[in-house]
Design brief:
Blueprint lengths: L18 H6 L4 E3 L5 H8 L5 H9 L2 E3 L9 E2 L2 H9 L8 H7 L7 E6 L5 E5 L9 E3 L2 E4 L2 H10 L9
């Protein structure tokens, strides 16, 4: 489903020799979650978005259109829990509190943080095998695949988000 991002998965062997210079030129940087992290997220949020589970298993988590000063991150499973349940460092984050007010936290999970610091959510319930993606009260796409593919192809795709 997300095989078009396979080349951006970072592995230890990529960093041997002059590999660091090569890796730093990658458009995206994705990391493999620890084996216990995905099941923990699945247990914490039921239902869990099927497309996000597939993304974590196939690609992982990380940064899209990665450059200095750009965030654009797919949250790792642990951060997904911390952000959505407002735990640890997220507990007293007033900006996060205001952001969550724009989402149906019973149906949606914040899973992506744009370089502007804005969060984007995914619907926890699937529709025809897909999970719609939202920015506040507006549906951006009908599926996570559509969201990721659109942003992968066009870095400016998210610039309209304020």
């Amino acid at each position: 489903m997300f095989s078009f991002l396979e080349e951006y998965k970072l592995r230890e062997d990529l960093f041997e020799g002059n590999g660091v210079e090569k890796v730093m030129k990658y458009t995206h940087h994705f990391y493999t979650p620890y084996p216990e992290d995905i099941p923990k997220a699945l247990e914490t949020f039921n239902p869990f978005p099927v497309e996000l589970k597939a993304f974590y298993e196939q690609i992982g988590f990380g940064f899209m259109h990665r450059r200095k000063g750009k965030l654009n991150r797919v949250l790792d499973p642990v951060s997904l829990i911390l952000v959505n349940l407002r735990q640890d460092e997220c507990r007293y984050d007033k900006a996060l509190e205001r952001t969550l007010a724009h989402y149906d936290t019973d149906r949606q999970l914040l899973f992506f943080q744009s370089d502007k610091g804005e969060y984007i959510a995914i619907d926890r319930t699937e529709t025809n095998g897909s999970n719609p993606v939202f920015y506040k009260h507006h549906k951006l796409t009908d599926s996570l695949h559509e969201f990721i593919a659109g942003f992968h192809k066009n870095e400016s795709w998210l610039e309209s988000i304020n």
